[in-house]
Task: inverse folding
């Protein structure tokens, strides 16, 4: 299929519909409004349902309902709206329901601003909701990767019966790039025999629930069901991009659009003879810990670059386990890192100034 | 080859669609392209700008910090982006609405009375196409025919009658800097 020029938010919607998403529930917030707008226009054409809820809380609970009935369903929001959805996400994780959630991140805390940010890393990977739960988090850096991962996300959600989150930022949502909707490799998906679509008098009722009053029953649910599949996901679903990790003076770590800025900075350093590597996590959870084992003694230090005051750096420190110093460069509140500032930081680390 | 152009003006001057056209044309010519708009609460009547990158290599950051060219449609845009252009880059100024000269001496500056040319053509709305025509003549980033091909797709049948006017505007813009 030929490439089409699309805005990020619309490309996410198109990819979702292509992946069989039939239901969308949301509430408006900048900078992701083009996504629900697209769904409101396009979903009726495929006999789907778009519904603007009265709030983000209502929207995420509609997702719970639709997922429980076996539908492919999506919701989207931006940071403060995503904060409101956290209770619902915890319930969806607890009840083991598949869905796709999109966060087009803007500056915070509170209402914050409307410009791009990555300050929801903790919210996305640690969970803003209660309890022992995880969900897969994809952080694409180009629009092509975004549409590929949105389509994949629905399969991953169904395979593991869990919410899958796509994390972009204001730039991902607003920019235009050519995209191609490729047929992805199909996963073997389990039959949805657990859904509540009516017994028709032919089977015992299915029950969808996250309440377990007996503590032993709850511990078994968390360990045997949730934790067990999280371990499989950590083994099988890690995605990352690596570049010159084994031979670098400095290794940068960045995700999403920030990684693209870092790539510019790396090219500039290389032109001056420095060897700079890059680890770009594509899944923020599960985090690509193992690739950090490739970093050799030659490397002087790691530089984490984020559009936040430093959140992913915690995972970088866990992954490198004290073997190398980890430095940070970031802008926040909607400000975007400048490649020249990153170049200066890299040079300081390479030159032993840090 | 990598062309990084900032297009700026006030809301309604067609800055965003001028950028999208160039991006679209770059894609048709099988180049790597990206379009990044400014967005904010101040859209109506406020300033608008977009960053367009057309490149033979894959594009890193879609944000332009060192522009190879700037197309400025109004005075605040010139004030804001004049310093972002690399040495020997191109600066195309809409002299119909901008009453000062460029301060930079290390960039190639072109003054195009885009609104006057557009009015002569019978429609002030094609001032953006005049500016785009001038820019394409200077840089040859994409062929003018490809822009016309992109326009055809954007317009569809309903607005196809606007094509000749837009083509004329592109040609007049090119003429102004020749």
Result:
């Amino acid at each position: 299929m030929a490439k089409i020029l699309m805005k990020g938010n619309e490309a996410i919607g198109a990819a979702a519909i292509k992946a069989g998403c039939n239901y969308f529930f949301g509430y408006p917030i900048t900078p992701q409004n083009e996504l629900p707008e697209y769904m409101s226009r396009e979903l009726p054409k495929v006999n789907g349902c778009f519904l603007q809820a009265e709030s983000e809380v209502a929207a995420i609970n509609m997702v719970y309902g639709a997922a429980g009935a076996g539908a492919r369903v999506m919701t989207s929001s931006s940071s403060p709206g995503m904060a409101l959805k956290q209770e619902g996400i915890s319930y969806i994780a607890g009840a083991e329901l598949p869905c796709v959630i999109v966060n087009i991140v803007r500056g915070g805390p509170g209402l914050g601003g409307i410009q791009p940010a990555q300050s929801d890393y903790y919210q996305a990977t640690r969970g803003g909701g209660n309890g022992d739960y995880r969900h897969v988090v994809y952080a694409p850096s180009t629009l092509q990767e975004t549409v590929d991962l949105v389509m994949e996300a629905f399969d991953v959600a169904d395979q593991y019966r869990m919410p899958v989150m796509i994390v972009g930022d204001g730039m991902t949502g607003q920019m235009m790039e050519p995209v191609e909707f490729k047929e992805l490799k199909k996963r073997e998906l389990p039959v949805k025999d657990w859904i509540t679509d009516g017994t028709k008098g032919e089977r015992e009722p299915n029950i969808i629930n996250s309440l377990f009053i007996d503590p032993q029953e709850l511990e078994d649910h968390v360990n045997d069901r949730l934790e067990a599949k999280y371990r499989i996901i950590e083994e099988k679903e890690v995605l990352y991009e690596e570049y010159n990790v084994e031979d670098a003076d400095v290794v940068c770590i960045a995700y999403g659009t920030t990684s693209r800025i870092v790539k510019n900075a790396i090219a500039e350093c290389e032109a001056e003879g420095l060897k700079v590597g890059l680890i770009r996590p594509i899944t923020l959870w599960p985090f690509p810990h193992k690739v950090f084992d490739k970093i050799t003694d030659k490397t002087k230090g790691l530089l984490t670059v984020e559009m936040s005051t430093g959140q992913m750096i915690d995972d970088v420190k866990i992954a490198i386990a004290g073997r190398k110093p980890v430095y940070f460069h970031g802008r926040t509140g909607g400000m975007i890192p400048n490649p020249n500032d990153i170049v200066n930081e890299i040079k300081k680390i390479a030159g032993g100034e840090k | 080859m990598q062309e990084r152009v900032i297009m700026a003006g006030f809301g309604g001057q067609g800055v965003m669609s001028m950028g999208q056209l160039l991006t679209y044309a770059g894609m048709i010519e099988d180049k790597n392209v990206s379009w990044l708009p400014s967005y904010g609460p101040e859209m109506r009547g406020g300033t608008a700008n977009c960053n367009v990158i057309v490149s033979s290599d894959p594009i890193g950051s879609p944000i332009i910090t060192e522009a190879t060219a700037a197309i400025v449609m109004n005075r605040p845009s010139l004030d804001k982006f004049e310093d972002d252009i690399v040495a020997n880059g191109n600066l195309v100024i809409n002299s119909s609405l901008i009453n000062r000269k460029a301060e930079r001496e290390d960039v190639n500056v072109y003054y195009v009375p885009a609104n006057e040319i557009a009015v002569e053509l019978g429609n002030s709305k094609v001032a953006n196409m005049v500016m785009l025509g001038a820019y394409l003549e200077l840089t040859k980033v994409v062929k003018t025919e490809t822009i016309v091909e992109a326009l055809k797709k954007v317009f569809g049948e309903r607005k196809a009658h606007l094509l000749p006017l837009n083509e004329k505007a592109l040609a007049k813009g090119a003429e102004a800097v020749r």
Notes: Residues 140 and 225 of chain A are 28 Å apart (CA to CA). Chain A touches chain B through 23 residues (CB under 8 Å). DSSP finds eleven helices and 14 strands in chain A.
